[in-house]
Design goal:
Largest sheet: 7 strands, mixed
Number of helices: 4
CATH topology: Jelly Rolls
Radius of gyration: 15 Å
Structural class: alpha+beta
Oligomer: single chain
CATH architecture: Sandwich
Strand order of the largest sheet: 5-4-6-3-2-1-7
């Protein structure tokens, strides 16, 4: 029984990893008063991609992340179910301004994290990176989804 469970988990993890290869990968920049920070992000835009997120990932490069594109401003909350690494979650408005940050979200937690106001997108980066880079609410995220949302 334990062997079956381990094999099942391994297959699920493999399938989840293969799904990641399907996401668009694009550059993203975060601009603060003092600096610009470049990231390479996978863009999760469909409901399935958003639901999957960074589940089962064992690592994430310091300059990598996942951008959750909701397509419009809407209420959003995130959780860490089946997520193996700590993450910083940056919640952004329609213009790409960071309105809130959930720092070092706990792997595996089912706690709902959100800013309590509607957002256009969420950026997940490795836990602790926002603090290390001095990223804070009010900073601006530059990515094509924000130019599209301006209309």
């Amino acid at each position: 029984m334990i062997r079956f469970m381990l094999v099942s988990f391994a297959v699920l993890a493999f399938l989840a990893q293969s799904a990641f290869a399907q996401l668009a990968v694009t550059p993203l920049t975060i601009k603060s008063d003092e600096a610009s920070h470049g990231f390479t992000v996978e863009v999760a835009a469909t409901e399935d991609e958003i639901r999957q997120g960074l589940m089962f990932r064992e690592s994430l490069a310091p300059d990598a992340g996942m951008l959750f594109d909701f397509g419009q401003v809407r209420p959003a909350s995130m959780w860490m179910k089946n997520t193996l690494i700590p993450l910083d979650m940056l919640f952004m408005d329609a213009e790409g301004q960071i309105i809130a940050i959930a720092r070092n979200a706990v792997p595996g937690s089912l706690r709902s994290l959100g800013p309590g106001v509607p957002v256009r997108a969420v950026l997940e980066i490795p836990g602790g990176r926002a603090k290390a880079l001095g990223i804070s609410p009010g900073d601006k995220v530059e990515h094509p989804i924000f130019t599209k949302s301006r209309g």
